Amino acid sequence: MPQAVVPVVSVVVPLYNEEGNVAPLLARIGALIDALPGGPTHEIILVNDGSTDGTIRAIREGMRVRPNVVLVDLSRNFGHQLAATAGIEIAQGEAVVLMDGDLQDPP
To answer: Which of 9, 10, 51, 100 is the most buried (most CB within 10 A)?
Structure first.
């Protein structure tokens, strides 16, 4: 049985009503990591913090396109810090990067 590949980098992104940002966010994070020397293995953990728009649908679409996307779907809005903590707790990478999903800061 082949061993599972442990990601080198885990990117954790809490999301609350960010439906329109999910696809561009995944594209930008993916392009940035792919451009790194050696193209390190990675996972992108998207934490849906009780969004009331189509964020969860956008995340699931992203998961179909990028197999390294991991979904954490919280039962309600717990706030940014607890959503970030939920993502960090399941991260498997040797390094964890926490970022916001609103794309106001470049990945």
So the answer is: 10
pLDDT in tens, 85-106: 999 999 999 999 999 999 988 8
Encoding tokens for residue 48? 């849906």
> Which residue type is seen at 87?
G
Can you give the pTM of this predicted structure? 0.91
Asked if residue 39 lies in contact with residue 8, where contact means CB atoms within 8 angstroms, the answer is: no
Positive or negative: CA dihedral 83, 68, 23, 52: negative
SS3 call for 104: coil
- Rg over alpha carbons for the chain, rounded to the nearest Å, is 13
